[in-house]
Amino acid sequence: MRRSGSASGSASGGAPGRGDDPALRRRRVLRAVAAAVTGFAGLVAWTLMTGPAAQAAIRGACLLPRTGVHHSEGVDSWAGGYARPTGDVKALMIFLSFPDAAPELSPAEVAADHFPQTSAFFDEASYGRFRLHVRAETRWLRMPRPSTDYAISRDWAPAHRTAYLRDALETADPVVDFHGYDVVYLVADPGAPGVDSDATKVVNLAMPLTIDGTSLSRVVTVFEHHPPDRNVLAHETGHVFDLPDLYYRPPVGSNADWDTHVGDWDLMGSQFGLAPEPFAWHKWKLGWLDPDQVGCVSRTGITYHDLSPDETRGGTKLLVVRTGVDTALAIEARAAIGNDATTCRQGVLLYQVRSDRESGDGPIDVVDGHPGTSACTATSVYPPLADAPLGLGESYALPDGSTQVTVTGHAADGSWTVRVTENAPDSAVARGDRGV
Q1: Strands, E assignment, 128-243
Q2: I want to staple 390 with a disulfide (CB 3.0 to 4.6 A). Which of 4, 240, 362, 369 is the partner?
Q3: What's the sign of the alpha-carbon dihedral 380, 383, 385, 390?
């Protein structure tokens, strides 16, 4: 299965520990500090600011810090140099042909492969808060060299990639007005012999360029065949707004699966997934949720929460349980509507978030609510996680016994009720119990 992505470096990280190892001790200290700060008994559901958060909310117990890794999942600030995906955002689509092939499609036909579908996806996912407007050029611009000269591939040699970008921008600059655009798509002729659809990705420029008064820090290089992969441009556009790759890339020669981290959930894992709607965590990060749509569980005790499906407008979308300095457990509801109309299972989805792991290194891991089964084997990109959501009456407990999530209700309006039990760190029980 082929994957597109964003050029990035490497990062390291580890999962929370057990027993008396340093990771668990660090977590206990974190919880103790949170208890001292709040200063009253019982469980507290914090209301969190929409990212980037205000300084006062940065002190909130569930705001994971942004770290230096590429596309960090931290939500305490917005990464400099990235446009914000809120309101009306303008995108420019430029079409490039080559001397070794005459395009068989018009620019309008190629543009229709991606729009208005991509804009519609984000309009639905953002509840109308992100409106992507594309201006597609009406003619092919001819590159100076044959397509095969650029050795286009997924693992593009820097020299060839640089030559392609240089030629593309030098070809377009005299005839295209770049002024005022936050997103630029460089679309290669789908029929050119050197075009490799596995090479579609966002390229981050080492030094931003200024063209027509616009600072250009990254471009989306599109090498899709006709018709293209489903949701591929929505995936790449997510990188433009600082979302990471959530898939796993196995070592060369390995037969390991690409989708072990998140399966079908969130198109930043797989643009082919049955449930491509962005995680509520990503909607929080991008500024698509109101302050009262995110709750933080920060104290010991038992509390109940209603969760409105991620795919619908209104209601609480995300619960967060802080599990470490750079880690959290996220809880949301998913339904088979909208962008997720083809989803395999509905219910309450749990996933672990790490802000210290970079794009492609597992910053999010979906919790398998049914570890002994699979579902939708004919259509899912990773059947073991296709039935990950918890259903009515089902539970999941963190391995150290500190947190248990139980689904206690499912209303006619589609909302789900969950009970969250937070045990005191020193009395955590049932270590290793998954409780399903």
Answers
A1: 130-142, 183-188, 201-211, 214-222
A2: 369
A3: positive
CA distance 420 to 115: 42
Q: Is beta strand 183-188 parallel, antiparallel or unpaired with respect to 87-97?
A: parallel
For residues 163 and 269, give the distance between their C-alpha atoms in angstroms, rounded to a whole number: 30
SS3 338: helix
3-state SS assignment for residue 376: coil
- The whole-angstrom separation of Cα 87 and Cα 78 is 16
31/282 Cα distance (integer angstroms): 25
Instruction: With beta carbons less than 8 A apart as the criterion, state whether 249 and 258 touch.
Output: yes
Placement of tokens 């009306």 in the chain: 88
pLDDT tens sequence across 358-409: 999 999 999 999 999 999 999 999 999 999 999 999 999 999 999 999 999 9
Selection from 230, 339, 337, 229 nearest residue 283 by Cα: 339
The DSSP symbol for 181 reads -
Output the pTM of the full model: 0.85
Inter-residue contact 84 to 127 (CB < 8 Å)? no
Rounded distance between C-alpha atoms, residue 436 and residue 433, angstroms: 9
Report H helices in 39-91: 55-58
Longest dimension (CA), the chain: 72
